[in-house]
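ok trying again, last paste got cut off:
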Amino acid sequence: MSTQASKDLETFKNAHPKRDYTIRITIPEFTCLCPKTGQPDFATLYLEYVPNKHCIELKSLKLYIWSFREQGAFHEAITNEILNDLVAACKPRFMRLKAEFNVRGGIYTTVIAEHKDKNWHIPTVVSLP
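nice, full thing came through this time. structure:
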């Protein structure tokens, strides 16, 4: 079992590709480096997506997230980079990544980035009594 950080994202076939459903993943131990000071930045990542033909494999996601530990990046840039890589890997119908960074210099930062496939239409929400 590999415990080395890796930028390789693996996927597996969605068992229900005709159904819209949401996968939610919380990643509470994301770290990267401040590009100005080199100090560590800590964040919780919240990933939500409606898969199409493929889903993200969780072990590869963990190793991918680890690969940012020594990377310097601004919060906005790294959130969009991660979203871009995840979208490229599994081509979801919809994906949203929310990154809640811990305090730095008395300021908390939250970045939300989204992707929506041009052919996907948001389903109607059903309200039950």
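cool. The first helix runs from residue 58 to 66. The two ends are 48 Å apart (CA to CA).
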